[in-house]
Amino acid sequence: MAQKFKILIAGNNDPISSKGIELLQAESSFDVVVNMNLKEEAAMIEASRDVHAIIVRSGAKVTAKVFDAATNLKVIGRAGVGVDNIDVPVASKRGVVVMNTPGGNTISTAEQAFTLMMALSRKTPQAHATIVSGKWDRKSFQGTEVYGKTLVVLGMGRIGAEFAKRAKAFGMSVVAYDPYLSKNRADSLGVTLCEDLDAAIVQADYITMHMPLTPETKHMINAKRLASLKKSCRIINCARGGLIDDAALAQALTDGTISGAALDVFETEPPPADYPLLKAPNTVFTPHLGASTEEAQENVGIEIAEVIKAHLLLGTVVNAVNMPNVDPKVLNEIGPFLKFGELLGRLVSQIAPARSNVVSINYSGKVGSGDTTLISRAVLKGFLERAVGAEQVNYINANGVAENLGLRFTESRLPEANLFTDLIEVQASNGSETASIAGTFFAGEPRIVKVNERHIETRPEGTLLLIENQDRPGMIAAYSSILGKNQVNIADMSLSRNKEGGTALTLLTLDSCPSPEVLAELEKVPGIVRVHCVTV
Ligand SMILES: NC(=O)C1=CN([C@@H]2O[C@H](COP(=O)(O)OP(=O)(O)OC[C@H]3O[C@@H](n4cnc5c(N)ncnc54)[C@H](O)[C@@H]3O)[C@@H](O)[C@H]2O)C=CC1
Ligand SMILES: O=C(O)C(=O)COP(=O)(O)O
């Protein structure tokens, strides 16, 4: 019977599009539970216990404790962009893929930010409030035009670029500050690239912010920067609370250091009633509504449902923030290499020199001409299992685990086929010694074709005994007799030597693993240099 997957649509009064939910409900192997009342962590923990997937917007928080409880969890889908309500490092550690829907709410958020800029310039909410309170006041609400003004866009990504296009249509001159924006892209958007944040913002009549909240961007607009702005400057933040120091902003507005602020996002959401910013003059606020349009919600709701469904049913990975993408075509092509890469990593870890600090993966042939990111992660996973335990390492956290152990990993790719159509070679080195195993596929079957630079041919199955010895007569008889006398049966054998009278390598496939005593006896045989027992 096909596996059943339980999917939790989790929210805190921030609904996911019914079209997305229906798409999941139509799948017979999915059990879809919708709970929009998950404000408290305890409720979220309870609701997540036995689920395989969770879909959220920004309201429900997926914390470390939720991961502790959700032991079946495979994937989290964020119907939107920001994943700051999900503990992504913990997700990665647990091997849970986190996917989002970049792009689906871009236009809506750019439109919301633009609306905020216009409403701030024309004091629209304040004017509205007086009318509904019975006043007709035409003196207090003189505004300013945006036409001809300088707009500084901080973060020229998807939303920033859409904002900039609209601003240009309104006759604004646009300056961009974004350390990752190329000059070509700035030129094609028709904006002036400024490489220095402080130099950019002092020119601004308007500043709009469109970047994620990271340690680098936290409090990017602080008291010092606010003090450097033109008195006429107005700030719009429709990205994330915390990009601006809200307390410093409240002070700057109260002191008249700047002329206004329009915010869709706050450092604390929702802001408490005594939040100083709420009392500051010249503000326009909305409660995190950037993505709250019919169109955006339908886009992100359907997209997240589709990618979660594809992940659970087919293993594809799209829009993941903690893993490379794997589409069905790629998965079909590299699927066998993933398993094999993991196996090669596991084998090399068993013959690696002590304190290996570099793992090198060399691809050649067809496999080397494609994207090998995921195969390398599979190799690393296999290699690291001995060090940290198989449960602790997965495709998502493999690079981080390696980094923590001080293990460097290098990759080389040669599209040309050598002796084999596809070859993956994994080497581990501690600087003075190196061990390596290379493998390929023969008619779809995996084969080990090289060990420690010696050509050999073995199926990677069962227990392998690797013996390096001086190339002289009598060696095979010596080790065979020790194995025989200890009831260890040899199922297969492959021999290789570098040169006559040099060092020979034997790879034996055994029916059982020799005891440590038998391995020690083998190592004592004159002429035997090294013995390794490796389990596949
Ligand atoms: N208010 C709302 O409802 C919504 C808010 N957002 C938020 O808007 C923000 C932007 O979203 P997108 O444009 O889709 O993201 P994006 O990834 O397309 O753009 C982000 C841009 O910020 C730039 N950036 C990164 N670090 C920077 C730094 N230190 N200084 C200046 N620029 C920097 C990046 O290079 C990138 O170009 C995100 O934080 C997202 O969560 C998105 C949708 C709705
Ligand atoms: O997509 C984002 O980053 C947003 O901030 C939108 O949040 P929401 O889905 O409206 O809770």
Automatic annotation (TrEMBL):
Pfam families: 2-Hacid_dh (PF00389), 2-Hacid_dh_C (PF02826), ACT (PF01842), PGDH_inter (PF19304)
UniProt keyword Amino-acid biosynthesis present: yes
SUPFAM superfamilies linked to this entry: ACT-like, Formate/glycerate dehydrogenase catalytic domain-like, NAD(P)-binding Rossmann-fold domains, Serine metabolism enzymes domain
InterPro entries attached to this UniProt entry: ACT-like_dom_sf (IPR045865), ACT_dom (IPR002912), ASB_dom_sf (IPR029009), D-isomer_2_OHA_DH_cat_dom (IPR006139), D-isomer_DH_CS (IPR029753), D-isomer_DH_NAD-bd (IPR006140), NAD(P)-bd_dom_sf (IPR036291), PGDH (IPR006236)
BP GO terms, sorted: L-serine biosynthetic process
Reactions performed catalytically: (R)-2-hydroxyglutarate + NAD(+) = 2-oxoglutarate + NADH + H(+); (2R)-3-phosphoglycerate + NAD(+) = 3-phosphooxypyruvate + NADH + H(+)
Catalytic EC class: oxidoreductase
Function per UniProt: Catalyzes the reversible oxidation of 3-phospho-D-glycerate to 3-phosphonooxypyruvate, the first step of the phosphorylated L-serine biosynthesis pathway. Also catalyzes the reversible oxidation of 2-hydroxyglutarate to 2-oxoglutarate.
Name of protein: D-3-phosphoglycerate dehydrogenase
